[in-house]
Design goal:
With 299 residues, this protein is mainly alpha-helical. The protein has two domains: 5-184, Hypothetical protein af1432 (Orthogonal Bundle); 198-277, Beta Polymerase, domain 2 (2-Layer Sandwich). It has helices spanning 5-8, 14-27, 41-52, 57-64, 68-71, 76-83, 85-98, 107-120, 124-139, 146-166, 170-184, 186-198, 200-220, 234-244, 264-277; strands at 225-231, 255-261. A two-stranded antiparallel ribbon has the order 1-2. The protein starts with a helix and ends in a 22-residue tail after the last helix.
């Protein structure tokens, strides 16, 4: 962390982070996770995730401290004295979100709960810390009793994965959904793993061929672009099979190709090249540049 943060936030107060580590270690001393690991391993992983998200040092510091108000004898006034009001407010915000109880699986209730989370988190950074907290908890879900694990997984699917989507965090959303599927539909998850692995080499060969063709054709018309393959995650495959009653062999978009250009003009130009090479599927083309998603994502 101390090496990574200055790469995207030059001049960050790293001493603040060191003090927070010492405070968190002292506060959680003697506490252990369900896995048997020292409890400090959890806030450390949350802080590492926040660094992966490129969050500022203030947010990472709050991530290191995010459980001290809920799980130790530390108080908010103590945090204010040690780290200032901004960090104390962030930790307090995460603590308050953690005390909200979600019970209903109805879609409207879930949406209302997500809105409540956003409204309560007056600072967006509180939601980022909460998502990092939930992601690490999901990664270590196997150590919990099955009933508790299933409850957390369902809550993640209903609340936190859509929240990550709203915040434009596609990778976090995908991982949360896959981890939830592993707990809620264990047999289906293992079966998908085997099926996807079996066709991996075949798909990689197809993707590499498409990338080679695109690189050549885009170069011919003077469009600079970065092109890479992107695998579809397990939950999206399972959901398509489940919702549409389709077999695995009927799912054709197990991987996708992402083309990143330097301008909107080149993006539409690349699209023209792609449509000249491969016929678009009727009703499946979406222009998120002209009509962005609700989180303002454009592609």
């Amino acid at each position: 962390m101390l090496e990574e943060i200055p790469k995207y936030q030059p001049g960050a107060d790293l001493a603040l982070l060191t003090r927070a580590y010492d405070f968190s270690a002292a506060s959680h001393k003697g506490q252990h996770r369900a896995s048997g690991e020292p409890y400090l391993s959890h806030p450390l992983e949350v802080a590492h995730l926040l660094v992966d998200f490129k969050m500022d040092v203030t947010t990472v510091t709050a991530g290191l401290l995010h459980d001290v108000l809920e799980d130790t004898k530390a108080t908010k006034p103590e945090l204010e004295r040690e780290f200032g009001g901004e960090i104390a407010d962030l930790v307090d915000g995460v603590t308050k979100l953690g005390k909200l109880a979600f019970s209903s699986r109805e879609e409207r209730q879930a949406e209302n709960f997500r809105k409540m989370l956003v409204a309560m988190a007056r600072d967006l950074r509180v939601l980022m810390i909460k998502l990092a907290d939930r992601l690490h908890n999901m990664r270590t879900l196997d150590y919990l009793p099955p009933d508790k694990a299933r409850k957390i997984a369902q809550e993640t699917l209903d609340i936190y994965a859509p929240l990550a989507h709203r915040l434009g965090m596609a990778k976090v959303k995908a991982e949360l959904e896959d981890l939830a599927l592993r707990t809620l539909q264990a047999e289906a998850y293992v079966d998908l793993q085997k099926r996807v692995a079996k066709r991996r080499l075949e798909r990689e060969a197809d993707i590499n061929q498409v990338i080679a063709i695109l690189e050549r054709k885009l170069s011919e018309v003077g469009i600079e672009a970065k092109i890479r393959g992107r695998p579809k995650h397990f939950y999206s495959i399972w959901k398509k099979m489940h919702d549409q009653g389709r077999e695995f062999d009927e799912i054709y978009d197990l991987t996708a190709v992402r083309v990143v250009t330097t301008s909107v003009r080149d993006c539409y130009g690349a699209l023209g090249v792609i449509h000249s090479l491969w016929k678009p599927v009727p009703g499946r083309f979406k222009d998120f540049i002209a009509m962005p998603k609700v989180n303002m994502y454009q592609s």
